[in-house]
Design goal:
four-stranded mixed β-sheet, alpha+beta, single chain, 23% helix
Length: 149
Amino acid sequence: MAVEWKLVVDCADPNAQARFWAAALGYEIEDNSGLIERLLGGGAIGPEAYLDIDGRKAWRQLAAVRHPDDPVDPASGTGLGRRLLFHQVPERKQVKNRLHVDLHVGPAEREATVKRLEGLGATVLREVADFGSVHTTMADPEGNEFDVQ
């Protein structure tokens, strides 16, 4: 039996990371405002647990993006398929990632995609030609490496 999973990324600003990766991947930012309202109304959380973004409540320490075609739990706003969860941690990134995302856009779209991602706040680290292809290694706004190929 296959195991369901999500990729969790430690970061300093989960909501900024979610905005970047939603735009980078064409994903949607999860809307957990209904769940937050219910927990707040029931006294399970206080105002320190959330912040207001674009007129809705969002978790202060967590934010996620999901594939727009995948199902969503209507009670929580949580994606039930392909998703990235950004989790706030106190320490900054210090070493190279041991796990990274590869964006497969194809040779004809690689250069334009790299420029678009730079416009969103990513930086180019290097161009690499190996295994018969060329890819661009980039860093997201918090320095997490990923490849565009």
